[in-house]
Structures are given as structure tokens and as C-alpha cells.
Design goal:
alpha+beta; 409 residues; two-stranded antiparallel sheet; seven-stranded mixed β-sheet; 15 helices
């Protein structure tokens, strides 16, 4: 009896296996996507290519604005990228993946690449029809990336780059062709717009800055499911939306470079749309101290009085570093008159300035005394330390003012 039961179960499972449909052939992509198959030593992958004239407008900006950058902008981008930077010799890179967790279980099934080719901006998109086609996609990707010394990405240092490096390792291929320089636009965006925008995601920057509206865009969270529906059931209806989403990301990065250039070119125009202190610090870190001061002055002139305080402080410190002490003192005097916590810091700075540079000990003493009075009105966690510094300074100033008669030497 047990033998008969075992035979019956084997027959049942054999029958069930015969009911499973044979693996369907990959659906024809030509019906929904204008692409072609690219042969590589590792097999075939699907390639879609679009070419745009440089006058093509993505939102409010033409693509050519992302190439014809001023010297100041190039210096800022070079510092962010870690070396000399020319967008004409860089590739914009963006991936669509099977998930956001990263790791060995996440695939990049679509890799978008944008680059300048003569008077055209080319977007190429490499598509993996099935995970078994991954070696072919990586082979084609390696050939393209090897032509460009620099990458431009949005969050690519944290996500796209590490993910692709993992995929190359898992496929037992040669290492990912690493760029000489990598410009990640997300940190720059956060520096300039984090205090002004609720989100610095690329989609949020598109809407707020570039004037781009994706009316028919597929949400990012739906993309992995749409790809799995293609792989498992041959559903191709949502593939064009995924490709359009990826291409729009590439174009937005190119347009964002042009917008950054406008920001550094015309500070008064963009004063109310960004974090001016972030802009001044970006310029300083790129070694452009005098340009930072000039740019900050331009923004300051266009800001409402109640939004000037932090920028004035930043400019005062920068002017002091540059030796423009009279301008630094003028900023501190404006802050001292504005009241509040900024006034305390400015009065302390003025006391130092009058004592060390003008040797006017009476003026220095008055500034320190006023700061102590203000400290009683605006208590803060660092108050005890500030009070101690001011009291020590006052003791020294009383002694010096008596010795010198109070005025400048």
C-alpha cells in the first residue's frame, strides 16, 4: 500500500508539472519602444537612443546652458567633483532598479546615460530584458563609461555608483570603470535649497526651479513592480513610462547645471529662492573667497531686512578673513542695531575689532557692556560662556582705557 501511494504521488506531481506553461519568449519591445538590440560578447541588450539639439528646452532652460558654464561655476563644480571638471567631457548617469535597498539582490535593469556629441545632447538607455541578460547590459555599459573621465549623478555617490559596482562584482566581470571625477548634484542642491524647499529630491527641484511638470510620469515606487510585471508576465504597457521617467531625470540634471550657473551669475535675481549662506560657503570652499564676498553682497542687497542677519554675519567673518576690516565692522554694526541673539555676537565682535584694530578702548568697552545687557534679555545655552568672555574683556578694557585716556592711539 505505501508503495502504491508513493507511486500515485509521483504521478500526481508529474502531472502538475506538465500543467505549467512553458517559459514565454521575451515580448517584442519594438512595438512600444523605439530601440534596437546591441550585440556584446556576453549577449544582447536593448538600447533606446534619443538625440536633442542643444537649443532643446527642458522646462525653462535650454540644454546648452548646462554646457556653457562660467569660470566661477566650473570652479565650484570642480571642487565638488574632486578635480578639474568639464561637462562637455562628462556623462550623466541614472539607474532604474528593482528596489531601493541596494545590496546583491537589487538589479539595475535600466541605465540611462546622457552626454554631449557635437551639437547634440544624446540620451542612451540600456535595458535588461531579463536578469540573465545582465552580463550583456554591463558589457555595453562598460564600453560607454570608459569613454568619459567624469560622471554627473543625483545621489549617485550613495546609490547608483555603489549599486553598479556591486552588480559588476556579482556578475564576475571586470570592475566597474570608475570615473576620475564624480559630481553628485544632491549635496550641492541641499546646500543651496534645503532651507527653502521641503524636499531636495530631483522631482521637487524640477517643479520648484526648472519649471518642469511630469503630467504622465510613473511614480518611482511603481517602477520595480512594473518591471517585474514585464519579466514575469510579459506586460509592456508601462515600459514606455519607465523609459520616459529615466530620460527626464537625465535631462533635468543637465538643466540643473544651467540653473546653478544662473544662480552664481545673477545673485540678486535668485536671492529669495535659495540659502545664501550655503552659496557663500560653496564659493569659499572652492577657493573663491573674493567671488564669495561679491556674490554675498549681491544677494544681501536683494533680501528683506529680516532675512539678512545670518548672511551679514557670514559676510562679516569672510571680510575679516580677507582683511576688509571696515566692511566687516559695518556688517557687525548693522547686526548690533537689529537686536536679538545676532546683536550679542555682533557686539562681541565689535568689541574685539575696536580693541585690536582701532585701539579705541572706550568704544570697545561700550560694545561689551551693551552685549552684556542684551545677554540678559536674550538668554541662550551658550550665555554663561559668552558672559564670561565679555566680563574678562571688560576688565582688560577698563584698565587699558585708563592708561591711554580712552581714545585710539
Amino acid at each position: 500500500m505505501p508503495t502504491d501511494l508513493a507511486a500515485t504521488l509521483r504521478a500526481f506531481h508529474t502531472a502538475r508539472a506538465s500543467w505549467r506553461p512553458a517559459e514565454a519568449a521575451p515580448p517584442a519591445l519594438h512595438a512600444v519602444l523605439p530601440g534596437r538590440y546591441v550585440a556584446t560578447p556576453a549577449g544582447e541588450c536593448f538600447l533606446v537612443e534619443h538625440q536633442y539639439p542643444l537649443a532643446h528646452r527642458h522646462g525653462a532652460l535650454a540644454l546648452e546652458r548646462g554646457v556653457a558654464l562660467t569660470h566661477v561655476t566650473r570652479q565650484v563644480l570642480a571642487h565638488a567633483a574632486g578635480g578639474a571638471f568639464d561637462p562637455a567631457h562628462a556623462v550623466f548617469l541614472d539607474t532604474e532598479t528593482t528596489g531601493l535597498a541596494g545590496g546583491t539582490g537589487t538589479y539595475a535593469f535600466l541605465v540611462g546615460l546622457g552626454f554631449l556629441d557635437g551639437d547634440r545632447f544624446v540620451v542612451q538607455q540600456l535595458f535588461m530584458r531579463h536578469p540573465r541578460d545582465e552580463p550583456a547590459l554591463l558589457q555595453a555599459l562598460s564600453a560607454i563609461l570608459g569613454r568619459f573621465p567624469a560622471w554627473i549623478t543625483f545621489n549617485g555617490k550613495a546609490f547608483d555608483g555603489p549599486l553598479l559596482a556591486t552588480r559588476f562584482r556579482c556578475a564576475s566581470r571586470t570592475p566597474l570603470p570608475a570615473p576620475t571625477h564624480h559630481l553628485d548634484l544632491l549635496p550641492l542642491a541641499r546646500r543651496l535649497w534645503r532651507s527653502r524647499l521641503r524636499s531636495c529630491a530631483l522631482g521637487a527641484l524640477e517643479r520648484a526651479l526648472l519649471g518642469v511638470s511630469r503630467a504622465t510620469d510613473i511614480p518611482s515606487w511603481q517602477i520595480p513592480e512594473a518591471y517585474f510585471a514585464y519579466v514575469r508576465r510579459g506586460e509592456v504597457a508601462r515600459l514606455p513610462a519607465i523609459f520616459a521617467h529615466n530620460a527626464a531625470d537625465i535631462l533635468s540634471m543637465a538643466a540643473l547645471l544651467g540653473y546653478l550657473d544662473d544662480v552664481f551669475r545673477e545673485p540678486q535675481r535668485y536671492a529669495g529662492r535659495l540659502d545664501p549662506v550655503g552659496g557663500v560657503r560653496l564659493l569659499q570652499r572652492a577657493g573663491l573667497q573674493r567671488d564669495a564676498a561679491a556674490w554675498g553682497r549681491g544677494v544681501l542687497a536683494a533680501l528683506p531686512i529680516d532675512e539678512q542677519r545670518q548672511l551679514r554675519w557670514e559676510l562679516a567673518v569672510l571680510c575679516q578673513r580677507l582683511g576688509a576690516l571696515a566692511e566687516a565692522a559695518a556688517h557687525w554694526r548693522c547686526l548690533a542695531q537689529s537686536g536679538g541673539p545676532w546683536a550679542i555676537l555682533a557686539l562681541e565682535a565689535l568689541a574685539k575689532h575696536y580693541e585690536r584694530h582701532e585701539h579705541d578702548y572706550v568704544a570697545a568697552r561700550r560694545a561689551a557692556e551693551t552685549a552684556l545687557t542684551a545677554l540678559a534679555l536674550y538668554p541662550n545655552p551658550s550665555g554663561p560662556a559668552v558672559r564670561e568672555r565679555l566680563e574678562r574683556r571688560l576688565g582688560r578694557l577698563w584698565f587699558r582705557s585708563r592708561l591711554t585716556g580712552g581714545g585710539p592711539k
